[in-house]
Every structure is written in structure tokens, then in C-alpha cells.
From TrEMBL:
This is N-acetyl-D-glucosamine kinase. InterPro entries: ATPase_NBD (IPR043129), HTH_MarR-typ (IPR000835), ROK (IPR000600), WH-like_DNA-bd_sf (IPR036388), WH_DNA-bd_sf (IPR036390). It comes from Streptomyces smaragdinus. The gene is nagK_1. Belongs to the ROK (NagC/XylR) family. The keyword Isomerase does not apply. Keywords: Kinase, Transferase. It comes from the Bacteria. Residues 18-69 form the HTH marR-type domain. The keyword Kinase applies. It is an enzyme of class 2 (transferase). Its EC number is 2.7.1.59. GO terms for molecular function: DNA-binding transcription factor activity; N-acetylglucosamine kinase activity.
Amino acid sequence: MTTAGGDSSLLRRLNTTAVLRTLYGGGPFTLSELVRATAVTRATVENALAALVRQGWAAEVPPAADGRRPVGRPPRRYRFRAESGCVVGLDIGAHKVLAVVADLGGEVRAVRQTAVARDVLPEDRLAAAWKLGHRARRAAGFEADQVRAVGVGATGVVNAAGTVLVSELLPGWAGTELPVELGKSFGAPVAAGNDTNVALLAEHWRGVAAGARDVLFLHAGHEISAGLLIGGRVHQGRHGAAGEIGMLPAAGWSDTARAMSEGWGEDIGALFEAARSRDAKAVESLRRFCEGLTHGAAAMVLAVDPELVVLGGGLSRAGDLLADPLRRGLREACLFPVPVAVSELGVEAVALGAVRLALDEVERELFEMAGVT
């Protein structure tokens, strides 16, 4: 890391960044471990640590209070101060807003949820989101100026700039510039994406798709949508519309979701209970839903050839009642069998993915030094 010549101020920042990156990635670390990990001199690491402690990013770990006294002077150990700030993850949907607040290490500190009507004005939906985000932030024990970044998963086609380009569900929602509107309320950088893509990000971060590189994510509920992970990265496409196969009438997803809603409305839990009790109407409803879901899913599997299909959204609560027929349908329709896994993240999937979006923003801020990452 250390080089001869050059700007000493830049070199100092680069070395400090190397130490911070190491602390952020794990720990706690002794001084000697940091020297080995960063490949800089001991004096350089000591100076970097002093700066990071002064800035509030690092802290010395006190000796264990277990009564044991080690022989000689114990080595000093340092850690990243995840509690020095927080991020807010928001799931802004048609019927609810859900907020998750996590510290800078990604540990969830608070979760809050509120219902919103489908026909509320966009400004009222956004107001509900920022109010809920701050309520969750207070519950987590953070001050407003400790919010380092905000992530948002929103219904509709959302482009790379965080603007909603298309919304079939919400009147007036298209054209909403999420980073601009919510940035005013939080005073922090805002990153936004389509809720399905953001939920897929959560699955890859902490869910059943962790470690996978090519994944088809099916977000199934009162609406059906899909997200794609290709080469370990969420694929959004030119306009943020990748995976919007439900727009194609031949896929049948709109009719499939509508038929489910007409039969059971909002009470999806009752459908699952009835199906497990072998109620004929419930079993038939799930069968028809899965048949419709399989048509579009098979087309995407044949196009992408993923290593895994993940079933998420509200209907993932059905578990194998839905996953088993989906497996059979894909096996019959596709060239090769593909594993189908059921999400375990529940209703928090989108908000957790939004937390990951926000943490990515924080990491860019922490680690970008004079254009060097």
C-alpha cells in the first residue's frame, strides 16, 4: 500500500481507508493483525487508528471482564463502530409501508409497519414512509443526524436514478423521484429500486439465494413479478424493467393474480389453512394459481437457465403447497430440472433489501478516496 513519492495527504487517506475497510469487514483486530491485513507499517496503522477513533469510526475493545489476568501486557484490539450510525430500509407498497433500521454492520435494530390505502396521493404515501422511517429510527435509539443512507424498494418500474417510470398499481405514482423526495426528509443519500429486485437483493445477501450467481426470483402475491440475478448481480435492464414478463398477456400472470384475489381477497392466510385442511376450493385455487405462475416462470427459466428459483412474496407462506407443484411444472416444461427454494425472509424481504442498498451507499462513502475504491 505504501509507495514512494506522491501526495502524502492522499497516501495517508488511502492507508486510513485500508485500515477502515479491514475493520469494517470483521474483527475485532489486534494491531499486528491489522498490519498483516493491510500490508502497511505498524506506525502507519497506529496513525490511521488514532484518526479513525477520533472521527468515531473505530474503538478500542476493552479487555474481557472475566477476572482472568493474562501474563504480560495484552495486545490492544480494535473494532469498527457499527453503532456510530444507521441506515433505513423502506418498503413502499400498494397497501403498506414497512421500515427496517439497521446499524452500519447490518444488524437490524427496529422494524415498524403501517397500512396505507391504495388510492392515497403520492405525497401522502411518501409522507407515511418518512414518518415511519423516523419512528423506526427513534425506536432503534438513533438520532436523526446518525442516518447515513436510506434504501427504498417501491412498487413499479424504477430506473437507476430512482425514478418511478411506470406504475400499474398506484395512481399518480409514475414520475416520482424517490431519492429527491425522500432525501429532503432524511437529509441522507437515498438509493431506490423496484421492490421485487430489492427483495432479490435481500435473498442474495441473507436469504436462500446466498452464494448463488444466477437466480430467478418470483415475487408472488396479489400481483406476480420477477427479478433476475445474473453473475451475482441483480439485473435491472436499461430502464429497470428486466423481469416484467407479467406485462405480457400471454404469460397469464395478471389473470392468475386477479383470480386469486377474487376468490380470497386479502385473507391469503385463510387460503393456506383451508388448503392444508384439504378444502376443495382452496386446493383448486392454489392449483390454478401455480399453473398460471409456472407458464411465465418456465419461459424465464428457459431464457436464463438459472441455478435456482426462489419463491417469495406473500404466497411464499404457502411453502411446499405452492413450491411442490411449481417444481413439477418447471420440470415438465424446461430442459433441465431447477431447484425451487422458498424464501424465509417473510414480509421484511423488501425492506431488508433496501437496507442492503443503503449499506452499499455507506460503503461507497467510506471507501471512495480520491476516485480510488
